[in-house]
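Working notes for the structural subgroup meeting. M.R. asked for a predicted model of this chain before we commit to crystallization trials. I am recording the input and output together here so anyone reviewing the notebook later can reproduce the run.

Input as submitted:
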Amino acid sequence: MHIAVVGAGLIGLPAASLLARTGHSVSLVDRGEPGSGTSSTSFAWTNSNNKDPDVYHRLNVAGSEAHARLQDALAPAEPWYIHTGSVMWHAGTDGAADRALAERAALMTERGYPVHLLTAEAVRTEAPHLRLPAGPETVALAFPSEGHLHVREYLAAVRDRFETDGGTVRTAEAATVGSSADGVHLAFRDGTVEAFDAVVVASGKHSGDLAVASGFDLPMVRASVPSPWTHSFLGYTGSGADLLDRVFVSDVLNLRPTSIGGLIVQAPVMEHLCANRDAADPAGRTHAEVRGHMDAWLDRLLPGAGHVERLVLAERSLPADGRPVLGPLDPHGRVLAAVTHSGATLSALFAEAIAGFLGAEEFADARELFAPFDPHRFAEGRAFTDGVVQEGLGKQ
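Returned structure, recorded in C-alpha cell form:
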C-alpha cells in the first residue's frame, strides 16, 4: 500500500517507520522538522499510574511493553527507553499525603500493577540523593515497571530506520483529506494533491483542524489559548542527572534525568498559571514565579542538582474526553485518526495498532486494544466522560 502519515512526532514517526518496515510505501508529512513540535517538549514519563478507566490502564501497561519490544527490535547503541522505575511522594504533613499514597498503592495493587512502599531508609537506598522530609514510616511509593523516554534519541533512531526501509519525509502542510472506495486524496496548502491508499492523521493538536476541514468529526480541546489542560511548564537544568536515575513525581515537583546530563523539571502545583496572560513570555512574571518554585524545591529535594536554566510552555494534544483516539474517520476505513495526550507511553503501541489496522495481522492484538477508543464514540455518545475535561486528564 501507498500510505501517507500526517505528523512526524511521537505518534506519526514510529507508525510510519513500522509501516515501512512491514513492506508499505510510506510518505511522512509534517509542516516542520520531524519531532520538532509538541513531542519535543514532553516530560515523557512512561506509566499507567492511576489511569482510569481500567481499559485505559491496560492500554498504558501495554504501551510500556511495546516500547521494550521496539527497543529490542532496533537495538540502538544507546537505549532511549529507560525503565529504571519511579518514586512517588506527597509533600503534605497533615496525614492527607499518607492517605493519598496508601490509596494509590491499594488501587494499583488491586490492578496487579507493581508497587511497593518505601520507608525513609528505603528511599535512601533506591534514590540516595533524594532528601524527603519525613520520619521513619512509609514516606513514598516505588513503581518499578515505570520509566521515561529520551525523546530526541528515540525519534532519531526510528527515523533512521524509516529512511533505511525506504520511507520518505516531506515538509508540507496538509489541508484536507478525502476518501472513496478506491483511495484517498490528500490536498496540501501549496495547492498540490496526491493520491494514496490510506492516510494516517497523527498531527497532534492540529489533527482536529485537519479532520474538521475534511468533514470528519474529531473533537479536540483547543490549544490556541493556554490552559492547565493543554499546556505545562517544563524546566531544564544543565546538571543533576548523576543524582537521579529514575522518574520522581510528587504534588510539588516532578523530575527525570536527560541524556545530556541535566534534568527535566515539572511543577504540577503551578500548572494553573498556564492560563496567565503572560504564560508564554520567558521574561514575564509567570515564568519568574514558576522558576522560583522549581529552584526552591530542587534545592530542598535534590541538593546539588543545579537550577532551572530554561523554562518553556509545553503543549499537549488532548482529545475532547481526555482519552486516546485511534480508528477510521471515514466509512471506507482509509483515513485513520491517531491522537493522544499520552504520547510518550503509547507511542510504540500506537505504531503496532496502526500497522494492524492497515493489514499487518501480527499486530491484530494491538489493534484490538484500541477498540474502545474508536473516534466514532463521539458521534455515537459513547465517550468515557460527558465531554468535559475533568481533573487529572491531560496529565502524563
